[in-house]
Amino acid sequence: MNLAIVNIGELVTLRGPNRPRSGRDMSELQIILDATVQITNDRISYAGPSSRAPATADTADEFDAGGRVVLPGFVDAHTHLVWAGSRVDEFERRIRGETYEQIAASGGGIRSTMRATREASDMELLTFAHRRLDLAIRNGTTALEIKSGYGLSERAERKMLRVIGWLRDAGKVKIATTFLGAHAIPPEFDDNPDGYVDLLCNEMLPQIATEKLADFVDIFIERGAFTPIQATKYLMAAQKLGLKMRAHVDQLGRNHGAELAAGLGCTVLDHLEHTDAAGIKSIATKGVQPVLLPGSVYALGRTKYADGRAMIDAGLAVVLATDFNPGSSPTLAMPMVLSLACTHMRMSPAEAITAATFNAACCLGWNDEIGSIEEGKRADLVVHDCADHRELGYYFGQETARVVVAGGKVLYHRQ
């Protein structure tokens, strides 16, 4: 497909060094005013001033952006898109005063979704996931990471990874797969949690490595999930197998999970709501990227957001993502995440955009392909219904995407 997007008010290109952006570089968006983007097949063939745009072929489709903003598609680098069941009852229980931890201890939480996911067929999970993926696209997301972690058995985790693979192979958007078998201890191992860790290390991780079932492996290091000792064993096993590692750390409390995971070779750390100044200083020396998830703080009714401002000032290449999941962040709205980052984590609109596009692409190893609007890159971009890029953080709870293009194809066009 050949496509020309003309009359762009602000073309936010994010051209720049092809490495994770940190410090002042996160504010450098490289905006071109009165711009045109031309797409040939699935690639960007021109992105620059309209006055210099080459003539388009007669067969090319043309879209008039009407002076709107065009950005790279959002790269949602932390999602739990595949699951069955509902946790709306737990939402109401939290409103009445129960905590996330209390609900989990009573058999709710991750285990509730685990039971429903185990019972669901492959096709049921795929149907649910396609609906959610379409919603993500409507919010301007053109690439995302999807985790397993609601199966918590060899059979059920394979089912989840199989469904994620089908979504990826459908080719609508770029998808990275993460194995999160270490999301929680399943009930059949209540009396032997270390036995489940042994199962993960001795059977499931080797299968992931041998069969190349996932791009990353992940673990939830938290009270009520996996202890630092268990996490150390798991991550060392993953490291020996040559697997790329990431970890959920310091979400519900400060347990020094960030320093532990970074020291064991994790390239990506997620959550970090309770990582303090000492922890930030420590991980800043490790070259890891923090993936901050303000949607989960908001949805749980908490007030302790990750200190995005301090992390950027410490030289970390911050990423923003939705953490879409049924229990603590039921949203696929990346614009809402940008707004929360600006209002609660003191990130500037420019920093938030970088964190949700180019830096997110870097943490998934995709920065050669996506994350910026440049000639030769995959044509993943979005026309937003605003005249100034700062409006994405200024407005909240609104659907801003007017046209979504992924791989050169128009996936969504709101009239």
Kindly list the characteristics that best describe this protein.
415 residues; alpha/beta; eight-stranded mixed beta sheet; eight-stranded parallel beta sheet; 15 helices
Describe the structure.
By secondary structure, this protein is an alpha/beta fold. The protein is 35% helix and 22% strand. Strands 1, 2, 3, 4, 5, 14, 15 and 16 form an eight-stranded mixed β-sheet that branches. Helix 4 (122-138) crosses helix 5 (154-170) and helix 8 (257-263) packs parallel to helix 9. It starts with a strand and ends with a strand. The model has no long low-confidence stretch (mean pLDDT 96).
N-to-C CA distance = 21 Å
Shape: globular
Spans where pLDDT lies below 50 across 5 or more residues: none
Number of helices: 15
User: Helix/strand-derived class?
Assistant: alpha/beta
- Biggest pleated sheet: 8 strands, mixed
Q: Can you give the mean pLDDT? A: 96
Counting DSSP E segments of at least 2 residues, the number of strands comes to 16
Rg result: 21 Å
Percent range for β-strand residues: 15-25%
The helix fraction, in percent, is 25-40%
